[in-house]
Design goal:
heterodimer; A: mainly beta; 4-stranded antiparallel beta sheet; 0% helix; 50% strand; globular; B: 6-stranded mixed beta sheet
């Protein structure tokens, strides 16, 4: 089944404790992206990647890191999480790097205490 | 800068009513794409439609229809004969390059 998977689905952590949210797609998509969803703000793009080893900042990259060492994986890293990073996070992928339809993972709900 | 506005924060209708969700966008690019996504209470994001800036034809898919008007920079979404299962948050989005901009979403509640 073609899908985007994220792990974990739920995470509660404390300020300053490094964490990684994994994202994987099995559709051989070139483009992958991370978003955060906050009430009243919709989805805001954190980082995106057009291919292996090619990443770029979205609208809200501060406090986040990403890497794209393999085509299928695009982990989101929070080196020192803070409470304002409490949010719902979505990973997405699309076949091409041009504005193509994005398919989303199930979401990761992160709470930073 | 690109921007998407969904002025309706929440809408409530009674089942079988028609409802239109508004989307207004801003971009300086001549080539761009517009999207609608649905987020039901279960939380996943479901793709509904993609439209490019050169195609102003309205589209109908079952009870769903979309009206794209470049003159007013709008891409409105109408649900005909709404059903309880249509209750969700609906997002309009814009892309003209490598990044995507989403609107804040409209929460639609369809009451039985």
């Amino acid at each position: 089944e073609a899908q985007v998977t994220q792990n974990p689905r739920y995470l509660i952590t404390v300020t300053g404790k490094k964490l990684t949210v994994t994202c994987s797609q099995n559709m051989n998509h070139e483009y992958m992206s991370w978003y955060r969803q906050d009430p009243g703000l919709g989805l805001r793009q954190i980082y995106y990647s057009m291919n292996v080893e090619v990443t770029d900042k979205g609208d809200v990259p501060e406090g986040y890191k990403v890497s794209r060492k393999e085509k299928r994986n695009f982990p989101l890293i929070l080196e020192s999480p803070s409470p304002n990073q409490t949010s719902l996070y979505f990973c997405a992928s699309s076949l091409w790097t041009s504005p193509d339809t994005q398919y989303f993972g199930p979401g990761t709900r992160l709470t930073v205490l | 800068a690109q921007k998407v506005t969904q002025a309706q924060t929440e809408i409530s209708v009674v089942e079988k009513e028609d409802v239109t969700l508004d989307c207004v966008y801003e971009t300086r690019d001549t080539t761009y794409y517009l999207f609608w996504y649905k987020q039901p209470p279960s939380g996943e994001l479901v793709f509904l439609i993609r439209r490019n800036s050169f195609d102003e034809q309205n589209e109908i898919s079952g009870r769903y229809s979309w009206n794209f008007q470049k003159s007013t920079s709008s891409f409105n979404f109408t649900i005909t004969a709404s059903q309880v299962v249509d209750s969700a948050v609906y997002f309009c989005a814009l892309s003209s390059g490598q990044n995507f901009v989403f609107g804040p979403g409209t929460r639609l509640s369809v009451l039985p």
